[in-house]
């Protein structure tokens, strides 16, 4: 599930790729299916990350790295003022938490 979630985040702004995700419903247009996946990811983020400071950081990493249109990992690292290793460690943790949340429901 982690690989599926990471692939969906990587395709977050690419409707045709996102619509092919296993998280996508079978029926509907490409845009409607992609929108469902985007909503599922955002909802899972809301459930996975509460108001603890570490959760806020994990949410920020996902937002800066994947949800911000046109963002790159390099720009997210600069925006968040973290080292490369820290960024990728937090990104992996955040994706895992979202994947765990999606499997719970």
In short:
With 105 residues, the chain is mainly α.
Explain this structure to me?
The structure is a single chain. Helix content is 73%, strand content 0%. It is mostly helical and 105 residues long. The chain has one domain. Helix 1 crosses helix 6, helix 4 (53-67) runs antiparallel to helix 5 (73-80) and helix 4 (53-67) crosses helix 6 (84-104). The protein is globular. The relative contact order is 0.16.
Set out the fold topology.
Elements lengths: L1 H9 L4 H5 L10 H19 L4 H15 L5 H8 L3 H21 L1
Structural class: mainly alpha
Number of strands: 0
Compute the number of structural domains: 1
The number of helical segments is 6
Radius of gyration over all CA atoms, rounded: 13 Å
Termini Cα gap: 13 Å
The sequence of SSEs as H and E is HHHHHH
Query: What are the low-pLDDT stretches, counting only 5+ consecutive residues below 50?
Result: none
Strand content: under 5%
Largest sheet: none
Based on the model shown, name its key terms:
105 residues, mainly alpha, 6 helices, 0% strand, globular
